[in-house]
Design brief:
CATH topology: Rossmann fold
Distance between the termini: 54 Å
Number of helices: 7
Oligomer: single chain
Strand order of the largest sheet: 7-6-5-8-9-11-10
Shape: globular
Radius of gyration: 17 Å
């Protein structure tokens, strides 16, 4: 291994080979952490603006304190960290289907791991987010049927570009309605997408939630030296 590239961990999983890598981006003078599933890039510490915006845009729609939040998809932890920046948040459950990702945070192999594991409000749950969303028991194994003020999801690349076809039903009206059952009145569903806003999906959200919007998040891509736009979808329960 050179100083410019290191594979920190590599493990087979039921949906493909998972790896955690650190590489030196010489043009920018910084270390970049990346998670790959097979040949797919799941997450990079170089591009985090929209993952952070997912938390801030969602929680900005919730007044009051003592908020209980679920994040589906741990990744490198940027959405979870942004949630915990809000003093109004009382508890955070992060649901992650790939157990190695949780291990990396607990072992401090990723930059935010120590911070997330040290926050008493944050708890990791190893499980299939989509199966839990479709269930009556929901996301908290210690409190079946518990409802939340916000459920934020950053797992698939977009509602149409899935990591695994097993999640396809989640993005239909019936799947979104089952997710909404886990929200308190006025609660917020937030969804990250790597694509530009999709009017058809926003309309679908609007048929399930009392309010639905697509928020473009534009940031500078330093590798391509041009702006890049991703999307945060927001649905507010009646």
């Amino acid at each position: 291994m050179s100083l410019y590239f290191e594979e920190l961990d590599y493990r087979p999983t039921p949906i493909g080979d998972l790896s955690l890598r650190r590489r030196r981006e010489l043009r920018l003078g910084l270390d970049v952490f990346e998670i790959k599933l097979g040949e797919e890039h799941l997450m990079s510490s170089l591009f985090t603006a929209s993952e952070i915006a997912l938390a801030h845009l969602s929680l900005a729609r919730l007044p009051g304190d003592g908020l209980d939040v679920v994040v589906g998809g741990l990744g490198l932890g940027y959405t979870a960290q942004a949630v915990l920046e809000h003093a109004s948040v009382a508890s955070l459950i992060v649901v992650e289907t790939l157990e190695p990702v949780i291990d990396w945070h607990r072992a401090g192999l990723v930059p935010l791991g120590a911070e997330l594991t040290a926050d008493p409000r944050c708890r990791f749950v190893h499980g299939d987010f989509f199966a839990l969303a479709a269930s009556d028991a929901g996301f908290d194994p210690a409190a079946p049927g518990r409802r939340f003020d916000a459920v934020l999801v950053d797992i698939d690349h977009s509602p149409d570009f899935l990591l695994d076809q097993g999640s396809a039903s989640f993005y239909g009206e019936a799947g979104l309605a089952r997710l909404a059952n886990h929200l308190r009145p006025g609660g917020v569903f937030g969804l990250w997408s790597n694509e530009l806003p999709d009017d058809a999906f926003t309309a679908r959200l609007g048929r399930v939630f009392a309010q639905a919007v697509a928020e473009p998040v534009t940031f500078h891509n330093p590798l391509l030296d041009r702006p890049f736009t991703q999307t945060v979808y927001l649905g507010t329960a009646a």
